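Anyone up for a design puzzle?
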């Protein structure tokens, strides 16, 4: 089985390319393939941009397209996934678009990412213009799904039967829907998807409704933000809104605004120390040049950070953004893991209570006549709980194939371990992001003041005095 999803990239394709090409996800870069572009993500982004500038129409705000194909756990090898990915790119793109393909093995299910330029190499038209017009059956997300299903059949893989309508689903989303996980998990996922598509917080609030999310926002209140799935309200008119804080700090107003900024490529860092102006340093050489004593300390700090991460002054800005984007992706993964753990913990509690109530139900089956009547009266609460727990479990697992409590506990412990390891990775990425951002602002402020100083000196030499 392969689930598909496709979406547009309007900002920072370089950050997206850096993410999908991460060595930790692609077996140290072994599971990468490209067409008409470099294997180096930053260089590939430049080559994408060059094609758009040289032959593109310049009429579209979309810079690239990104599709994801996710396979069932254990269904394919990384090598087979790469083979399918190349075949899919050949069918969908027909050697007319630069693309960067990566197979990821960092999840329990193998999945592949493909980012391709939005500009056609032959005629300069956009991918939407050529592939996303007319009937629904002719739209790019539909084409991708059909091509993926055809390849799955060709390679002997299973295919999702009667797929839901919409622009494709990730494996996680499809699997979550199939297993009927909690409203909270569905709500979090829906909010995550809206955040990725929003330009700012106001846009986020407006788009929530289109994605089936009801929102209550009042900045004057202490509890300013609440959510509810429209589907939940339809099923239960008396259902109440869920506080953003209840979903987790990641879904509070400030964090949502920060996440939207991250997806739109906005970094807002305030420099910790002001740099005094100097006019004697050549651009991008301030660390090596002799600067006045007031700036030597700052230059030394920047040098240490750059040396630590192996980044030169010319590379500091893209490196800082890539680190920031990586931090955001890790934070998203930590949040998803927490959601999975919380949902499984709820299931585990229900399964344990069900086990106790089932023992009472089984004992009732051994009785008859007055003994059964008396037993039913004495244990009415446990018997009622049994029916309630059974109904809940069937909602989660409608096919009847339920895990044992021990299996759930083992899965929870495995996820907790994975989250702990991921948290260590996040802390390192978070520190790197802060360090590089500070170094970036230090260098850019220094060079800006240097340029201003040179301009003032030039004007003074020309006019005999400062203007």
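Challenge accepted. My sequence:
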């Amino acid at each position: 089985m392969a689930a598909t999803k496709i979406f547009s990239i309007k900002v920072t394709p370089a950050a997206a390319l850096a993410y999908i090409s991460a060595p930790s996800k692609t077996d140290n870069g072994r599971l990468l393939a490209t067409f008409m572009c470099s294997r180096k993500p930053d260089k590939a982004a430049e080559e994408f941009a060059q094609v758009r500038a040289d032959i593109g129409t310049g009429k579209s705000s979309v810079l690239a397209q990104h599709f994801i194909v996710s396979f069932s756990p254990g269904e394919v090898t990384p090598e087979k996934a790469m083979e399918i990915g190349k075949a899919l790119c050949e069918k969908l793109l027909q050697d007319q678009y630069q693309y960067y393909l990566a197979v990821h093995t960092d999840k329990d299910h193998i999945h592949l990412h493909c980012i391709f330029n939005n500009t056609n190499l032959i005629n300069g038209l956009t991918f939407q213009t050529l592939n996303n017009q007319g009937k629904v059956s002719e739209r790019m997300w539909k084409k991708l799904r059909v091509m993926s299903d055809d390849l799955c059949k060709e390679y002997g893989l299973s295919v999702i039967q009667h797929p839901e309508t919409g622009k494709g689903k990730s494996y996680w989303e499809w699997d979550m829907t199939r297993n009927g996980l909690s409203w909270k998990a569905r709500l979090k996922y829906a909010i995550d998807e809206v955040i990725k598509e929003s330009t700012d917080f106001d846009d986020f609030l407006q788009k929530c409704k289109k994605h089936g999310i009801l929102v209550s926002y009042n900045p004057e209140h202490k509890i300013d933000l609440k959510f509810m799935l429209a589907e939940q309200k339809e099923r239960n008119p008396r259902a109440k809104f869920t506080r953003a804080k209840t979903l987790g700090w990641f879904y509070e107003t400030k964090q949502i605004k920060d996440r939207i900024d991250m997806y739109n490529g906005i970094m807002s860092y305030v420099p910790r120390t002001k740099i005094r102006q100097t006019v004697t340093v050549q651009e991008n050489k301030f660390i090596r040049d002799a600067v006045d004593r007031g700036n030597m300390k700052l230059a030394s700090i920047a040098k240490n950070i750059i040396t630590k991460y192996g980044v030169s002054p010319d590379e500091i800005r893209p490196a800082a953004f890539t680190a920031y984007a990586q931090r955001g992706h890790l934070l998203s993964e930590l949040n998803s893991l927490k959601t999975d753990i919380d949902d499984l913990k709820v299931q585990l509690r229900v399964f344990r209570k069900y086990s106790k109530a089932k023992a009472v139900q089984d004992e009732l089956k051994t009785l008859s006549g007055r003994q059964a009547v008396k037993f039913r009266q004495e244990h009415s609460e446990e018997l009622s709980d049994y029916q309630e727990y059974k109904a809940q479990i069937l909602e989660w697992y409608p096919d009847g194939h339920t895990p044992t409590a021990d299996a759930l506990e083992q899965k929870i412990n495995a996820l907790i371990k994975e989250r702990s390891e991921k948290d260590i990775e996040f802390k390192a990425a978070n520190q790197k992001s802060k360090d590089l951002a500070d170094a970036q602002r230090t260098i850019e402020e220094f060079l800006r003041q240097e340029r201003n100083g040179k301009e003032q000196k030039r004007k003074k030499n020309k006019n005999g005095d400062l203007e």
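A detail worth pointing out: The chain has 16 helices and eight strands.
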